[in-house]
Amino acid sequence: MSSTIAAPARPSDAGAVLHWQQGFAALGEAFFTRLAPTPLEDPHWVAADPDVAALLGLSPAWMGSEAALAAFSGNALLPGSAPLASVYSGHQFGTWAGQLGDGRALLLGETAEGQEIQLKGSGRTPYSRGADGRAVLRSSIREYLAGIALHGLGVPTTRALALVGSPTPVLREEIETAAVVTRVAPSFIRFGHFEHFAARGQIEELRRLADYVVQRHYPECRAGEGFGGNAHAALLHAVSERTARLMAQWQAVGFMHGVMNTDNMSILGLTLDFGPFQFMDAFEPRHICNHTDRLGRYAFDQQPLAAHWNLRCLAQALVPLIGDMASAQAALQSYADTFNAQYLQCMRAKLGLRQPHADDEALLAELLRLMAQDAVDYPLFWRRLSEMVATGNPAPVLALFKGRDAFQHWLLSYQKLLAQDSRALQADLMLKTNPKFVLRNHLAEQAIRAAKLGDFQPLQTLQTLLARPFDEHPRHAAWAGLPPDWASSLVLSCSS
Ligand code: AMP
Ligand code: MG
User: Fold this and answer.
1) How many structural domains compose the chain?
2) Which ligand has the nearest atom to the CA of 293?
3) % of the chain exceeding 90 in pLDDT
4) Catalytic pick from 263, 273, 281, 377?
């Protein structure tokens, strides 16, 4: 027998230690119900994101351990964890839906780095409203990859640390299997949390929530600067600004959320709750990615307006704190200007234009019109345009258009603008702005189909590509091409 005594684990070898002192749980019992996750039968690893693990100070050794698998399947609690399901309400598809809540999510706690850890798919809660509290492998893979893809593109989002599967059957349109995603964000508070307490006239709770969000996440709003000392008006304004910037980024990268209900709107301006989301393939401004959204309330080109509608619900909820509706409305005044300015800035970068030009807005509008007319593939267009600027060869980008003359005419105006600046710097900006790899539906679907058969390699490859989407990854060129014909028959709905 060896007489060596094992050295105590270094902090980097340890798992996550959670604490609640100043966290969400300190808000009090009106905000949540404490309960443990429902154990997941026979769990197995599907994926883990080393970048998120590093963010939380979790070592690769611990992430590979049985303790981590048990924690992220909901079968054991992390030290310091006191799980809870939070209550919120919300407007769904423009209609007041009343009380909702974490129906299948549990907040485990907060790490020393200020990141909250949440399990999604960990069983029923008092807010499950008759549903099973579970998530299926298919939608969990989509959520897992969406966080990686958006983060890789520089778009604010919740992220996923881990994905665990189980043979437990779960009934959706057909029988699928259960999975648990471990999500990470500085806060999972939604517009709907505010609407909940406002609708019930629980003004003290509403105030506590708003003060907590200001204190923890918007300290610059404490003094209510620019809003006559009203911190809550300043908060609403700051949320509006962040949301406007998020919408500009979604529109620029071609991201469609699909279910922009107020209960899915993050108070931090993060992309939150991935269901039937989609990245644009063929450019169609009115595209509806959510099969259930028959009227196109959340169609691609409606997203900035939908976010503004949601902000008005938040404003309404904050009226008891702000004082009057007019002041609340005033806090949203800058939304359209911020969105327009940010969107133009994002699109200028996609075009390689490093400064504003008098003609850039008209040039962009004409380009989008031509792309829509010919249903040009959105990611491929931008990458090929970047390559054209880098190499001088217009043939590949030209080949994407049916109306070649009209596009060539556009190219002449565009090249005139480009001529005013350094070509090398423009190409560099474009190749760092227009990704080669995008989480297209068919790529997610391929990873899902393989994972259902126990092959996690395509998921792993996709994860690697999406984490660094601007790199060439020459061995994986096939993952950067047009969607196959079968992709257009993929149907996405809220069922997940
Ligand atoms: P979503 O449309 O996914 O944002 O969900 C709306 C509400 O339904 C949220 O309160 C969810 O927690 C809840 N929910 C969705 N799916 C389930 C499920 N399988 N079990 C329990 N609650 C669910
Ligand atoms: Mg939701």
Assistant:
1) 3
2) 1
3) 91
4) 263
